[in-house]
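Narrative progress, year one. The postdoctoral researcher (J.K.) led the effort to move from monomer predictions toward full complexes, under supervision of the PI. The following entry was the first complex the group processed end to end, covering 486 residues in total.
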Amino acid sequence: MQAPINPSISVDIVVFGFDGTRLKVLLIERQKLNEKATTEYKLPGSMISEKEDLDTSAHNTLQNLTGLKNIYLEQLYVFSNPNRISSDEDKQWIEHTYGISTNRIVTVSYFSLVKINLSILKTTIQGMAFWCDVQELKHVSFDHKEIILKGLERLKSRMQTTPVAFELLPKKFTIKQLQNLYEAILGIDIDNRNFRKKILKYPYLIQLNEREAKVSHKPAIFYQFDIHAYRQEQRKLKKLKIF
Amino acid sequence: MQAPINPSISVDIVVFGFDGTRLKVLLIERQKLNEKATTEYKLPGSMISEKEDLDTSAHNTLQNLTGLKNIYLEQLYVFSNPNRISSDEDKQWIEHTYGISTNRIVTVSYFSLVKINLSILKTTIQGMAFWCDVQELKHVSFDHKEIILKGLERLKSRMQTTPVAFELLPKKFTIKQLQNLYEAILGIDIDNRNFRKKILKYPYLIQLNEREAKVSHKPAIFYQFDIHAYRQEQRKLKKLKIF
């Protein structure tokens, strides 16, 4: 942990990942203050240090606490309720961890998406972080559940306006995986046929000459997202995009 | 100004308005420290007080400094460069205004849109604030020009995805006014015929049985935006909106 710190501002980072079936968020274990305490989890976060801007602070914090580096981060929302640090346990933990006694911390949350592949898994396991199912957020400290839900809200709205899904999927994916992702994030069941019909109209979805291997069901065809074709179409549309 | 204050976090509010021809931003005069100093302008802003969250702080600050109240505000971006308060004048002004000596303030900017009508004009004039043309930002203090440009960026992207234009226009408007607004915000010239053709296809743009009065040119027809028709169409589209 870098010193000196600013006792009133922190960063907390919401990293979402997708493992093919379930939407996950990256958490770390909060150090217990005594043996009897329940194990709690938190978002990777820290107080900002004096010489760093928030973006740098968020990147460094994420790397220090989870091993993840050089990933795209964007500001999500600032949480500033004057009572957001109110329980004795939370205050004690802050005093123990940062050596400061504070009544109020304003936190700037950041948002990120990663593909959970083997390399990322290895990094985060070594970094002592773990991927928690977004549907099973238990024992999450502070107001971090609220922060995760804010991130989920942004992810939902982003999914419906931009091709952000392909940042979460592997490079080659099946239509079923894409549908699973939409279902997991939007929290709805989608009709298989309608989904296929809709999605296969997209000219920037490229069918590959390759199928799943070693699966118990009929092997599905792989697809790839053509970002260049997508951008080209966007440029055409943008010439005069009103709303 | 409410005390006590938090010496490291402030709010700054970017309020955009449109007067029918030009895009404006609401500024206040920065109190001069001596008679010889150049007059400088700044965004309405202040340190946050201990008992308020940021939203409350932003609303109270805007009302105290400009008279505007109960308007929709949303978080824009957090500016946190460790050197954003670097000039001696800036430091002296902060010391004089807030009675604190600080090397670093992180500011959370807010974003808002209003219709500049007579009532708003009266309020802001009484509040000692003024509407500055976005194309003519001179003598703006601190990094407030950068904050305004960030707001403009959000406004541009919002204009191309949502019917935000109608929050800036009077209730009844002409197609020319709508076009002026798009030109002012996007910073481009738009072909009159193409614009009319495109915009008149929108089913939620209602032609009124009323024309401009007392104008030197041929009086143009007024239109109104039908927010209900728009929302209905959006709901239909959203049933399964992918991207």
